[in-house]
Design brief:
Length: 813
Amino acid sequence: MADKSKKKAKIKISGMHCASCALNIEKSLNNLEGVNEAQVNFNAEEANFGYDSDKIKLSEVEEAVKNAGYGVINEKATLKIGGMTCAMCVKAIEDVLSKLDGISEVNVNLASEKAYVTYNPQLVTIKDLKKAIEDLGYEYLGLEGEIQDNQEEKIREADLKGKRNRFIVAFVVSIPLMVLMYAGVMLPFNMTYFMLAVTILPFIYVSYPIFSAAYRSLQNHALNMDVMYSLGIGVAFISSILGTFNVVLTPEFMFYETALMLAGFLMLGRWLEARAKGQTGTAIKKLIGLQAKTAVIISEKDEGSVETKVSVEDLQVGDIVLVKPGERIPVDGMVVYGESYVDESMITGEPLPVLKNKGLSVVGGTINQNGVLKFRAEKIGKDTTLAQIIKLVEIAQGSKPPVQRVADKAVSYFIPTILTTALVAFIVWYFILGSSLLFGLTVLISILVVACPCALGLATPTAVTVGIGRGAELGILIKNGEALEISEKLSTILFDKTGTLTKGKPEVTDILSTEIDEKDLLEIAASVEKNSEHPLAEAIVKKAELENVELQKSTEFTSFGGKGVKAFLDDKEIIIGNRVLFEENGISLKAELEKNLLNLENEGKTAIIIGSPQKIWGIIAVADTLKETTKKAIKEIKDMNLQVAMITGDNERTATAVARQIGIERIISEVLPQDKALEVKKLQENDEIVAFVGDGINDAPALAHADVGIAIGSGTDIAIESGDIVLIKDDLMDSVAGVQLSRKVMGRIKLNIFWAFAYNAVLIPVAAGILYPTFGITFRPEYAGLAMALSSVTVVSLSLMLKRYLPPAKHNI
């Protein structure tokens, strides 16, 4: 008989550059225990090997390839699943999918009712995933995006309607019966037979989904909440039937209305929960709603320009798209004609419209306001900024922060513990303490229906889904649950200086004239510097343009590397540069001038001297100015009891001067761009948990090495793959808001988990009768059922409150 644990596998590999790469991977794989006959084909970029599934998982093989410095090409799919009711359903689906060959990672989100799967298409197909889910007894509703929005809404509405109808039937029948029972109304017929006749059909109708789900769970050798609840209401109803016919039990065992009401409470709880869960995904629905359905393209034909309306899916890169006032821009592109203000608030969170004209980029999903624009389509379909943001948010909402492991661990022991507790409580009360059988059964039923693992299962995913969605609305893209959790534990935030704390564009800050008018000094300097491409020269020319200074034509322009320039204006020699250039030309600096130079340099500015061979006319200071929100952001971070540090390639004097303006005491200066990651590592070696805030493109290594990389963007031009948290706006206050949001979400997750544990820890002992000997208090099954229904609704409602959360850093912005 063949050993089922011996399997063959094939994985696609990226990053191989030569045959030796293939040999290295082969060696790494063959060194793994449980792997044999590994062969790597460099041309096909794939590895074929045998492995023993009892000794090693396929994900461990893939990890070995990654550790060797190469990539594994897998596919990702988001599956919509119906029929999940509690955390045990999540665990059952995750376990069965994880056992399939070719599955690298599975995350099932109870709140969004989705499974996020990373799989090897060479070994497993979507069809296999569908079969595994359906064999468990759950509904496979299709792939994300495969189901139309209106179809998905119809499925959800039908589910809500079914639950609503069931609890209405339950309460319409059970409440009058309960009133009759407690009022002691005497009827002219046998009450027990009457109650059986009245409740049996409603009970079957209301409880059918519960018993059906329990049966499927037991078929798959799993225990879930439906099993536990079925036992509770099943014991109640069967005891009533036995009592009705005097079989073992007497007519005092009447739980008909209780059993029906308990089933109604479960349906009520699940209806409320489903309604609330439907609201957790509103942020992603809003983003999807921003996508345009059609576009108008302009094509040139013999008869002239022709406008054609097409579906947005039919757009091609290079198409010229026409957008009229009030219309939504369908895809990303560059303006080729026209001028208009565009509302980008739905993407960036920036309330003021942005002026767009020829040469500027536009992004899909934004709204053209007042003019006609023609633009060339550059990114279409899944490559647009909006599509990337939607994908990122969807994946992030399906991720689990490490704190979820606590809840997952608890859930795995929860139901066996509750079943044991219920049985022990019954035995203690009836056999040891000598209570009546009626009391013992009441305790048993109450424990089975009050215990609720749902609250534990919903505690994390609902908060993550709502919190990450809220972040997207605020222009803060949090890419995974782990970033949320680490952000709460940060000790140090390290800021890159240029382009992050500062604008990254040198500007003229001071004009100090000694011999001539300031405007004349600027005119002379700019007339010469317009011949240079140096950033400092560009800053002087830009300042002149802003001041409407008319520039003269210079001649005999000469540049002296690292010192300055010379040129002639109206046959007069002009010298512009630093001390060294003037000293080499035999021009001495007066004490007053030296004092001004030192003051400017101590402020972190570059001082440029302007003069002639005979005299010095003045100084123009240029600096990379701070962003408007830099000082406020740093103060906010300090107020959060976090350490702040600045890293820069500047010399120590300039770096210290800039840091002093901002209020940063910890400075890491004269660091080359490629060495920033090493500085991050040094901080981590001192047991610091580090967030690095920098440019998403230039600071990629440092962002990757940090515990949390926060990539700061610039409007719609963002590098989405660049950090754990991506800020769409070029605003440092958003980095503060990102940390505040993370802390808030993690606080809500902990509150949810505490509530879920506390609810069960308090009410299960009460249901077991712990208060009865001292206070005579019992927990009737009806109340237990109501409490159970409200527990998970409370957790979801606490998470939904995050939808209105506005980080303090975003106030008054």
